[in-house]
């Protein structure tokens, strides 16, 4: 087992599933699409509006504006974290002193940590754009448009999964740096 817990030697269902989740960030969109398709299927079977079509226009607008704001702020925070992470992972101990804990990470592990952060940013950016486009397309109409709403929810769910991975990476970097 490595410090980053990617090279797992032990077998077990929990470790295998967690490792798969950590190493396959692209699957976030598949999981998110499956969740939205399930939502749409249940709505069709129950003969209910597909997404938020029947919700109050003001409530829909507020929801999508809030999603855009949260996604933009989180993308900015994640981008700032990347620059801080570069400084932390690139820091070397002065000559003659003991090696810093983060210096023990291999280049592959450093790349994996960076990819976790960099994968989250485009999804958050797309969420900002999709939420704002949905606000503009729906305007003040009494009924919403389910296709753009579904896209926003797919991006929202995928971004949540990516942010869970970012939180895990931050936790591991903190644990390693304080070891």
Automatic annotation (TrEMBL):
| Presence of the UniProt keyword Membrane in the record | yes
Which ranges does the record mark as transmembrane? Answer: 21-46, 66-89, 116-137, 143-164
Q: Which UniProt keywords apply?
A: Membrane, Transmembrane, Transmembrane helix
The protein in question is named Integral membrane protein
């Amino acid at each position: 087992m490595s410090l980053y817990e990617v090279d797992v030697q032990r077998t077990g269902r929990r470790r295998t599933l967690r490792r798969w989740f950590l190493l396959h960030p692209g699957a976030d969109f598949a999981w998110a699409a499956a969740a939205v398709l399930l939502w749409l299927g249940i709505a069709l079977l129950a003969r209910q509006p597909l997404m938020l079509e029947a919700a109050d226009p003001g409530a829909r607008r507020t929801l999508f504006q809030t999603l855009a704001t949260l996604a933009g702020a989180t993308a900015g925070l994640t981008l700032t974290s990347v620059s801080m992470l570069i400084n932390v992972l690139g820091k070397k101990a002065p000559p003659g002193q003991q090696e810093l804990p983060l210096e023990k990470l291999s280049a592959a592990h450093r790349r994996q940590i960076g990819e976790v952060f960099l994968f989250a940013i485009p999804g958050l950016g797309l969420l900002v754009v999709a939420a704002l486009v949905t606000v503009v397309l729906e305007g003040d109409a009494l009924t919403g448009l389910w296709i753009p709403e579904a896209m926003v929810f797919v991006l929202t769910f995928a971004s949540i999964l990516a942010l869970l991975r970012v939180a895990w990476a931050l936790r591991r970097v903190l644990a390693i740096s304080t070891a």
